[in-house]
């Protein structure tokens, strides 16, 4: 698997961001507006279904008041991946209450992260009802790095996960790093890795709340996972996260990552299309492996 992933990575980087065959694999995409319930709240979203899907994914939001992501869902569906994307709770047409600093609440409180993980789990259940024969995964961004492992741990229907610029450190550690970088895009030009790690270890916390460590859930999972990082990220300490992923790999976890030296936190929506292209190739290969295994059984 690791050798295969390396070959895929090399081919994509040397040949093209998205091959024409991938981009135009499905000419017809069916869209369906759906509603589902999570923790007593009705959430509203859209399912994008291509002809003959290889895999299916639920999109898990990052922080902020995020609505369903139609553009990204369409891009994936055009390559043969069914997508369910929904309005975050308390946002758009979804019920419930949004939590976030814009409204004076803590959106990375452990209770809120657990609630958002319930929403993702419920979305997976709905997608499985629509097509129980297609492998289902979770695809998310940034804050989803804390949500996806919890959802995957608690819903056995989740068979893989893709995480764009997602932390493996705790929520409190992430805040220490984020306050340290202070939004400076040139942070890594003037700071070293060792100084940054020292700050993350020892900086006093500005807020006191129960911390969430995604490694608690990741250490229990046996499903494939792919992280995509930008080396110049100033929201999460990428090299520390990679070190933690490598430690999980040593334990036998089927986790992979790709690092892009010129990119920052916005790996999924940067001008460089390679991160998304790699994720699509990876999802298809994982789905193929899952289907082969199920046929043998």
Helix content: 40-55%
**Overall mean pLDDT:** 91
> What is the CATH topology classification name?
Rossmann fold
CATH class: Alpha Beta
From the 3D coordinates, which CATH architecture would you assign? 3-Layer(aba) Sandwich
What's the helix-strand series?
Answer: HHEEEHEHEHEHHHHEHEH
Could you give me the name of the CATH homologous superfamily? Alpha/Beta hydrolase fold, catalytic domain
Largest sheet: 8 strands, mixed
Q: Radius of gyration over alpha carbons?
A: 18 Å
Report the total helices: 11
Low-confidence stretches: 1-24
| SS content category | alpha/beta
What is the 3D form? globular
* Number of strand segments: 8
Oligomer: single chain
InterPro entries: AB_hydrolase_Est10, AB_hydrolase_fold, Hydrolase_4
Domain Serine aminopeptidase S33: 52-165
Protein name: Alpha/beta fold hydrolase
GO molecular function: hydrolase activity
Give a structural overview.
The chain has 11 helices and 8 strands. Helix 1 packs antiparallel against helix 11. It is globular. It has an 8-stranded mixed β-sheet, sandwiched between helices. It has one domain: Rossmann fold, CATH 3.40.50. It is of the alpha/beta class and 297 residues long. It starts with a helix and ends with a helix. The N terminus is likely disordered. This is Alpha/beta fold hydrolase. One of its GO terms (molecular function) is hydrolase activity. Keywords: Hydrolase, Signal. It comes from Robiginitalea marina.
């Amino acid at each position: 698997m690791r050798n295969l992933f390396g070959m895929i990575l090399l081919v994509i980087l040397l040949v093209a961001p998205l091959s024409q065959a991938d981009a135009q694999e499905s000419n017809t995409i069916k869209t369906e507006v759906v509603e589902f319930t999570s923790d007593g709240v009705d959430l509203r979203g859209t399912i994008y279904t291509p002809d003959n899907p290889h895999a299916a994914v639920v999109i898990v939001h990052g922080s902020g008041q995020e609505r369903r992501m139609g553009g990204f869902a369409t891009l994936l569906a055009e390559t043969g991946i069914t997508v369910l994307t929904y309005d975050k709770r308390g946002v758009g047409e979804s019920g419930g209450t949004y939590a976030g600093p814009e409204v004076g609440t803590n959106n990375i409180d452990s209770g809120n992260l657990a609630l958002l993980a319930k929403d993702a789990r419920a979305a997976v259940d709905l997608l499985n009802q629509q097509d129980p024969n297609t492998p289902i995964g979770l695809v998310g961004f940034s804050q989803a790095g804390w949500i996806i492992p919890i959802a995957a741990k608690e819903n056995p229907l989740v068979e893989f996960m893709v995480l764009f610029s997602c932390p493996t450190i705790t929520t409190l550690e992430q805040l220490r790093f984020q306050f340290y970088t202070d939004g400076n895009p040139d942070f890594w030009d003037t700071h070293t890795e060792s100084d940054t790690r020292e700050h993350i270890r020892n900086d006093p916390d500005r807020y006191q709340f129960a911390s969430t460590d995604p490694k608690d859930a990741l250490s229990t999972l046996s499903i494939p996972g792919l992280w995509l990082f930008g080396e110049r990220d100033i929201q999460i300490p990428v090299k520390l996260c990679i070190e933690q992923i490598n430690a999980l790999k040593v334990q036998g976890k089927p986790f992979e990552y790709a690092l892009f030296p010129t990119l920052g936190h916005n790996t999924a929506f940067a001008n460089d299309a390679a991160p998304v292209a790699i994720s699509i190739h990876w999802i298809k290969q994982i789905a193929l492996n899952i289907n082969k295994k199920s046929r043998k059984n």
